[in-house]
């Protein structure tokens, strides 16, 4: 009887441990962010209908950025992610004019085929560029020209391969640029990313027809120059049937304390080709502070854009000018 009791107890313990292990292998999480900002022009009146011409944060006065909630289910080999957004930033990121109802930013399933290979199917944010849609993941609150002119998301299938501890490769086939629902023309886009010691070379191509992006090559990376000083780098060149854009941006960021950092984005961006015979270009300087209080990030920011061979802005008197400056104060809460 003692042996029987011991075996029964051991069997019960094994079942409980197996159930606990299974629970640990399946994990459901909820995360997200909420952001709002105040913006005023320093070189123009706030009631003028103009902006820098980059994505998001293009309102004066008090404005809402976006709210997003990410639902993630992670199993042992498979999982799914749904990222819902609302607000002007979410609407702009998904090319949707409805800023009230929830909008799908990302929705995909994935399969860890092996320890070194993962397949992802659905809609996911772009691999191109230094910046991303969610403001909490960017140091600067306003966005660069390089980010604004590239794709925001892709709808398709991608495969990620871990080639070694410091080298990885991604290959993708998608609907054409920012066609997030269907490919009604029968055309597709193709993407690749090679990661080498946290430096990334990105390539994307579609036919350029029907509003497509054409060809883009993009480098994104950075280096920790000291324990407190980081230098981010982004450079890209795009061509779509002889016209496109090019540019480079540096992101020096200095942590002055555990709670406060100061960063500068210096970007040079230009247009080329038949659509821009004047070879218009812009130098954009953005100085941003980042103060962290628990899960709240407060970002004061000053931005100055200055164009050559173009006068796209209006000054305080309503006259055309080649530069625009603004002060922005943003608050971002993450959970």
List keywords for this structure.
about 325 residues, mainly beta, Maltoporin, Chain A, 16-stranded antiparallel β-barrel, two-stranded antiparallel ribbon, 3 helices, about 10% helix, disordered N terminus
Q: Which secondary structure elements does this structure contain, and how are they paired or packed?
A:
Blueprint: H1 2-25, E1 27-41, E2 61-74, E3 78-86, H2 88-93, E4 103-114, E5 117-125, H3 145-149, E6 153-162, E7 167-174, E8 189-196, E9 199-205, E10 215-224, E11 229-239, E12 243-255, E13 260-273, E14 281-293, E15 296-308, E16 313-314, E17 320-321, E18 323-334
Antiparallel strand pairs: 1-2, 1-18, 2-3, 3-4, 4-5, 5-6, 6-7, 7-8, 8-9, 9-10, 10-11, 11-12, 12-13, 13-14, 14-15, 15-18, 16-17
General description of the model:
This protein has 335 residues and is mainly beta. It has a single domain (30-334), classed as Beta Barrel (Maltoporin, Chain A), CATH 2.40.170.10. The protein contains three helices and 18 strands. It has a 16-stranded antiparallel β-barrel with strand order 1-2-3-4-5-6-7-8-9-10-11-12-13-14-15-18. Strands 16-17 form a two-stranded antiparallel ribbon. The longest helix has 24 residues, at 2-25. The N and C termini lie far apart (54 Å).
């Amino acid at each position: 009887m003692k042996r029987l009791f011991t075996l029964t107890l051991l069997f019960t313990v094994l079942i409980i441990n197996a159930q606990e292990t299974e629970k640990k292998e399946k994990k459901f999480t909820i995360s997200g962010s909420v952001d709002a900002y105040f913006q005023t022009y320093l070189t123009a009146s706030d009631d003028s209908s103009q902006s820098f011409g980059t994505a998001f944060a293009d309102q004066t006065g008090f404005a809402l950025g976006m709210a997003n909630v990410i639902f993630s289910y992670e199993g042992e080999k498979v999982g799914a992610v749904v990222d819902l957004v609302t607000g002007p930033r979410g609407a702009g990121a998904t090319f949707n004019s409805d800023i009230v109802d929830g909008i799908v930013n990302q929705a995909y399933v994935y399969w860890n085929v092996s320890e070194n290979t993962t397949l992802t199917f659905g809609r996911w944010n772009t691999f191109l560029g230094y910046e991303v849609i969610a403001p909490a993941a960017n140091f600067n609150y306003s966005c660069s020209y390089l980010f604004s002119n590239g794709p925001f998301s892709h709808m398709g299938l991608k495969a990620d391969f871990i080639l070694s501890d410091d080298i990885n490769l991604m290959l993708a086939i998608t609907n054409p640029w920012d066609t997030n629902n269907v490919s009604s023309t029968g055309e597709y886009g193709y993407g690749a990313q090679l990661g080498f010691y946290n430096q990334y070379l990105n390539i994307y191509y579609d036919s350029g027809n029907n509003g497509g992006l054409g060809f883009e090559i993009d480098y994104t990376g950075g280096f920790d120059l000291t324990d407190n000083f980081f230098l981010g780098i982004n450079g890209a060149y795009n061509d779509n049937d002889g016209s496109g854009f090019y540019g480079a941006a540096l992101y020096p960021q200095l942590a002055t304390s555990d709670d406060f950092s100061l960063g500068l984005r210096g970007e040079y961006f230009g247009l080329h080709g038949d659509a821009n015979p004047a070879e218009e270009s812009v130098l954009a300087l953005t100085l941003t502070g980042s103060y962290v209080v628990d899960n709240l990030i407060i970002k004061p920011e000053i931005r100055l854009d200055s164009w050559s061979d173009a006068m796209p802005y209006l000054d305080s008197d309503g006259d055309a000018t080649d530069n625009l400056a603004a002060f922005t104060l943003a608050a971002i809460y993450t959970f």
